[in-house]
Amino acid sequence: MFGFHYRLERKTIPFVLAIIGAASIGGLVEIAPLFTIHQTVESAPNMRMYTPLELAGRNIYIREGCYACHSQMIRTLRDEVERYGPYSLAVESKYDHPMLWGSKRTGPDLARIGDKYSDAWHVIHLNNPRDVVPESVMPAYTWLKRTALRTDDLGKHLTALRAVGVPYTDAMIANATADAFGQANPGTPFADDIVKRYGAATNVSAFDGAPGNVTEMDALIAYLQILGQLTDAAYKSPVAEAARP
Amino acid sequence: MIAQLTRTERQIALAMLVILSAVGLLMAASGRHDPLGIHGALVATLAVLGSFAVIASYYRPLPTEDRRRQYYDDPSKFGIVAAMIWVAFGLFIGDWVAWLLVNPDLTFDAGWASFGRIRPVHTTSVIFGFGGNALIATSFYVMQRTSRARLPDQLSPWFVLFGYNLFCVLAITGYMLGITQSREYAEPEWYADIWLVIVWVVYFITYLRTLARRKEPHIYVSNWYYLAFILVVAMLHIVNNLAVPVSLGHAKSYSLFSGVQDAMTEWWYGHNAVAFFLTSGFLGMMYYYMPKRAGRPIFSYRLSIISFWGITFFYIWVGSHHLHYTALPQWVQTLGMTFSVLLLVPSWASAANALLTLNGAWHKVRDDATLRFMMVAAVFYGLTTFEGSFMAIRPVNSLSHYTDWTIAHVHAGALGWVAMVTFGSIYASVPWLWKREGMHSARLVEAHFWLALAGTVVYVFAMWNSGIVQGLMWRTYNESGTLAYSFVGTLIAMHPYYIARAVGGLLFLIGALVACYNVYMTIRTAPRHELEAGSEMPAAAPVLAPAE
How many angstroms separate the CA atoms of B112 and A61, rounded? Predict the structure, then answer.
């Protein structure tokens, strides 16, 4: 073996090929089957997609680095299920390009934060977390409420997502900008349109408390309120059923 | 620098800078409604300034033919200076971020200065800015000496260094502008990623061309590690960053993968960035500078072979240990855990090989802080790889994951191993490169050593405590069978540890600033050592031969 190596280390290209070979096997064995074994991701026929406003909010969540302190992955451990809710299923992040499972909980997990707090609470909390949680070490995001959301290019965002596999329809792409406005402006015809396109469960609300203009605060809260709400599959898993009183 | 280029190289450099200016202008135009436009303007400005510099020196005298008798070390000098600038900046941002967890209002009321945006500025500056420049600089130095061959030309090493630093600048300014993919340790967006691929291909070709011209029959072990670093980082980078941009006028892109496949790809990349960037490359550094400084041959050639191939083969499997108890299928988690434990064998073989190399030179370790930096690095490497294998075991991971224990582990590796071995190598190579008797002040090297060690120990102990305390509090139940602590309750318990961590980081930062001063003074004021012939290529006799 060492004699073989003694000869191998005299030849650059064979040595390079040997490194590539040795370093490829693990990744191929672990990653490739995840695309082919269909049990890897559960089926959830009624899984919803992010609306344009929620998607824009998700992009703000990414932009501000929220994922560095908040996970979105409840592990299969008793204390986590009791603290945060049913453990996360793979299907719940099926449309997440990229996933935001996170790796650190400087703040709590957010996989099921949706519908837990009111929109008004989120507005105050994001503006200055210490107004509602005095011990919080989270930064204040004061600029979200005063910054208008860019919505004119949302159709392009949906198109790019369709290219990587999220089944947005042509109508969704064509009306993305109007739908973003409608979701943050209840009572307008645009609001009725988005509910028709994305389903009755869509949250329509003046998220930041000020209808009319669409701000980054609107988008981020729309996203936070949908977390854990895209499908109820996690509540129907065998373990969750057994735990139900 | 431009004076060292041949006429053809000056022409190629100018052509490339003109093309880059044009690309920058196109980006600025197509991205005028997007942060991409700012990056386009930045690229165009830098490229235009570069073109002016080339034009200004275009008619200066051409380099003489006797340059071929000398190693080409100016790129290494540039890389080392860049590494020192990056480390001072990156550690400063890191300590600022640490203080933000003590008092979240120690910042400006602006997006660019918020925790979530400057935290990746810290990680990118220290890993890619400091670590990357140090790796490129030392790899050029080591590859020439161990091959007894000069770099193949004058232009490609400069292209690699400038291109790489442009990538780092695009990365950190991007985060502050809100441009990020959110993929940990691969945050830069698609256009920066494409640029890095171009730079990396040139780096690889430069390496191969130098090796092809070598006068040593064998490729020295340092080069195995540098080659693995270059090759596997390329592979990881390309696959992990596959994405579809929103348009050519948008910085934003959407990852090709989603959910569980994306998580696995991301941690396959993430842990192997640790493996092939922060381990392989720096082992290559250690295998050259430690025996040189100690004046001893590598303890065992066979141990080098076993540990090299063990690390190259085992590491690639272990990424899934970041996803224990998640929605990732359990068979992948189990494979990750198994290989993480197996990885201890080649890791400790490397650490042992390094420490046993010092046999017969321990008196030098006592007297020479530079060598002591490398020795302590090898010790931390052994400790951290043990801790890493331990933390990858599922039940241990259930406690450690998501807590500051991970942060402790990462910094034991990054400060204790990566930074220490780099500082040791920089202290060794600065006098060699600039042809000085030694560093400006040996006492300042000594002071830096103790600051760095104290900072690392304070930091790591603070985060161990914080992580284990928080992990235990999360899972504590009271007598009625409900969770004993709210999340906010655990935050209060963290507070003293966060202060201790920020102080530890501050000590490490002060040490690095001392190093910057010492390197600066060595370059500026120390007397020239006339007799030094370190950059002359020896006609025969290997520089370093591992013991059989």
Answer: 14
Placement of tokens 């709590």 in the chain: A108
The count of C-alpha atoms lying within 13 angstroms of the C-alpha of B348, restricted to the half-sphere facing its C-beta, is: 11
Q: Which helix (DSSP H) or strand (DSSP E) does residue B269 occupy?
A: helix B259-275
Between CA B487 and CA A138, with CA A74 as vertex, the angle to 5 degrees is 40
Using a CB-CB distance cutoff of 8 angstroms, which residues of chain B are in contact with residue A62?
Answer: 180-182
Residue B31: how many CA atoms within 13 Å on its side-chain side? Answer: 26
Tokens of A29: 């064995």
Residue of A106, A147, A158, A159 to mutate, interface with B, max B Cβ within 10 Å = A106
Q: Shortest CB distance from A138 goes to which of B104, B318, B335? A: B104
* Interchain pair A16, B232: CB under 8 A: no
The answer to whether residues B359 and B299 touch, using CB atoms and an 8 Å cutoff, is: yes
Q: Which two tokens stand for residue B347?
A: 């890791």
Instruction: Give the residue from chain B lying closest to A67, CA to CA.
Output: B182
CB B191 within 8 A of CB B199: no
Interchain CB distance below 8 Å, B115 and A139: yes
DSSP string, B364-423: HHHH-HHHHHHHHHHHHHHHHHHHHHHHTSHHHHHHHTBSHHHHHHHHIIIIIIIIHHHH
Chain A CB within 8 Å of residue B472 CB: no
pLDDT in tens for each of the 548 residues of chain B? 888 999 999 999 999 999 999 999 999 999 999 999 999 999 999 999 999 999 999 999 999 888 889 999 999 999 999 999 999 999 999 999 999 999 999 999 999 999 999 999 999 999 999 999 999 999 999 999 999 999 999 999 999 999 999 999 999 999 999 999 999 999 999 999 999 999 999 999 999 999 999 999 999 999 999 999 999 999 999 999 999 999 999 999 999 999 999 999 999 999 999 999 999 999 999 999 999 999 999 999 999 999 999 999 999 999 999 999 999 999 999 999 999 999 999 999 999 999 999 999 999 999 999 999 999 999 999 999 999 999 999 999 999 999 999 999 999 999 999 999 999 999 999 999 999 999 999 999 999 999 999 999 999 999 999 999 999 999 999 999 999 999 999 999 999 999 999 999 999 999 999 999 999 999 998 666 554 455 667 654 444 544 44
SS3 B158: helix
> Between chains, do B309 and A71 touch, taking CB under 8 Å as contact?
no
Task: Report pLDDT digits (tens) over B56-70.
Answer: 999 999 998 888 899
Nearest to B101 by CA among B447, B391, B495, B488: B495
Considering only CA atoms, which of B330, B150, B181 is closest in space to residue B243?
B181
Q: Which residue of chain B is at minimal alpha-carbon distance from A153? A: B246
Beta strand extents in B61-185 (DSSP E only)? none
Task: Decide if the complex's ipTM is over 0.85.
Answer: yes
Instruction: Give me B29's structure tokens.
Output: 């135009």
* Strands B253-255 vs B243-245: parallel, antiparallel or unpaired: antiparallel
CB contact under 8 A, B247 and A66: no
Query: Which tokens sit at A69?
Result: 């302190």
Phi, psi of A205 (to 5 degrees): -165, 155
CA distance B115 to B121: 10
CB contact under 8 A, B260 and A41: yes
Peptide bond into A98 cis (omega under 30): yes
Instruction: Choose the closest CB to B312 out of A22, A30, A96.
Output: A22
Q: Rounded to 5 degrees, what angle do the CA atoms B99, B102, B108 make?
A: 60
User: What burial class does residue B297 get, using C-beta atoms within 10 Å of its C-beta: 0-12 exposed, 13-18 middle, 19+ buried?
Assistant: middle
**DSSP conformation class of B62:** P
Closest residue in chain B to residue A154, using alpha carbons only:
B246
Q: Does A28 touch chain B (CB under 8 A)?
A: no
